[in-house]
Amino acid sequence: MKIVIKLSLDKAIESLRDGKPVLVHDSESRENEIDIFILASKMTPDKIRLMRKDGGGLICVAIHSRIANVLDIPLIQELYIYSSYDTLRKLSSKDIPYDRRSSFSITVNHVNTVTGITDVDRSITIKRIGELCREYWYKKINDERLHEMFLKEFRSPGHVHLLRGAEGLLSERKGHTELAIALALLANVEPCVALVEMLSDNGKALSYEEARKYAERNGLAILTGKEIEKEFRKIF
């Protein structure tokens, strides 16, 4: 069994590096959902189409908290809590059933997009976010330059949801946002990953068994959050 897990993790790491889709199940005690992960800097219109048609959920980009802090993007819940609008404050005070908070931050479009929602437009937005994160992570640009370029190249609101990883990553929160970032760190690539939930034709989330069959048909890596967490805790 350990050999199977290791092979699965190795394939997932290699796939993420190469810009291929990776399927990850969080856990039965959380959302109990499968997400497709793709490295943001490797995004293409074809990959957006795959996420849209074979995933079907909300296409987002998970960003490491260190990068999110430099970009100066908040959790949406924080904006609502301190809003002058009473409705927003009251809506944001309600708990979600599987966690204490959401990782949602702001929505953006790249300035070179039109509506922002087409496969081409979302690919432009996500790929450029990934490229900026990669340049910053490997110290090709500094804090000031990253923030300056982000302000210059993006507008908000938009059609790509940014997700802020928890400061303590998996020791603080074990959502798909943190799992995507953790897998990127294990793969030694920039922690900026596009993700989307996989939905079933029955109106619910795709089951693990259905996702496993999809992965087998398409030669994709599939693994669980526990597998990622176990390896992550060994190294980080």
User: What is the H/E string?
Assistant: HEEHEHHHEHHEHEHEH
Report the CATH C-level class.
Answer: Alpha Beta
CATH topology: DHBP synthase
Mean pLDDT value: 95
The second-level CATH architecture is: Alpha-Beta Complex
CATH superfamily, by name, is DHBP synthase
Strand order of the largest sheet: 4-5-3-6-2-1-7
The total of beta strands comes to 7
Oligomeric status of the shown chains?
A: single chain
Helix content: 40-55%
What is the count of helical runs?
10
Mind explaining what this structure looks like?
The protein has a single domain, classed as DHBP synthase (Alpha-Beta Complex), CATH 3.90.870. The N terminus is likely disordered. The two termini are 24 Å apart. With 236 residues, it is of the alpha/beta class. The radius of gyration is 17 Å and the shape is globular. Strands 4-5-3-6-2-1-7 form a seven-stranded mixed β-sheet, sandwiched between helices.
